[in-house]
Amino acid sequence: MDATHVVLLVAVAFFLAIHFLVSGTRLRGILVGALGEGVYLGLFSLASAAGLAWVVWAYGAATTQPLWNSVGFRHLALVLMALAVPLAVGGLTAKNPTAARQEKAVGAAAAKGFVAITRHPLMTAIGLWALAHLLALGTVDGLVFFGGLLVLAWLGPLLIDAKRRRQDPARWGEFAARTSYAPFVALLQGRNRLSMKDLGWWRLGLSVALFAVFVWLHPEVIGPTVWPG
Predict the structure, then answer these.
(1) What is the pLDDT of residue 18?
(2) Contact, 96 vs 71, CB < 8 A?
(3) What pLDDT does residue 229 have?
């Protein structure tokens, strides 16, 4: 690990601290009470954007230092991305009580579609994307960058769950009883059922199309290193 990796590590730590020490904790409520919801959200958005920009810049400036032979992980990365794309589409296009400004949708009736797979489809998708690239790159800079995003994507939802539980314990209990943090757990336990109608055939079709485009364009736009070849 050299100086560029240290800078990247500090940037990732700052970005994670914004979310784990402020958003989703009781400190958020204190700040909202002192500043107002609008001012808090504005300042938090600016801080998050600045932190993410710093992380991306530091990652681009970091030297590439191999840690492991990543060739064997590239087919696994493709599988993980095939799971991540539809979860991302569902997380972005369907109502979800765990998403920002959708708190009022909480309740048993909201536990359908992609939310029946996991309460956090978008965050799960980001986590799968980060894990796929972390494994397929096998570098120090990739471990720090994608590892940081993986921590945020898979631990951040626990803070979101805690916040929603404090906001509306009764309705959250109904929702949580039919959903799961980890993908497919509620379905495997028989607490919910998956309906293709609720998933939306157009979302599934869009997911297939996007995945095909990503596989096709990835070598040209981003680079071939994480794809089997």
Answers:
(1) 87
(2) no
(3) 47
Tokens 């079709």: give the residue. 205
Residues 6+ positions from 91 with CB-CB distance below 8 Å: 99, 114, 120, 121, 122, 123, 124, 125
How large a percentage of the chain has pLDDT more than 70? 90
φ/ψ of residue 66, rounded to 5:
-65, 145
As given in the structure block, the two tokens for residue 196 are 């293709």
* Contact between residue 112 and residue 198 where contact means Cβ atoms under 8 Å apart: yes
Could you report the per-residue pLDDT of 187-196, keeping only the tens digit for each?
999 999 988 8
Non-local CB neighbours of 105 within 8 Å, separated by 6+ positions: 95, 96, 97
Burial class (CB in 10 A: 0-12, 13-18, 19+), 36: exposed
| Cα atoms found within 13 Å of the Cα of residue 120, Cβ hemisphere only | 20
Least confidently predicted of 39-48, 74-83, 178-187, 214-223? 214-223
What whole-number distance in Å separates Cα of residue 182 and Cα of residue 166? 21
The secondary element (H helix, E strand) that includes residue 110 is: none
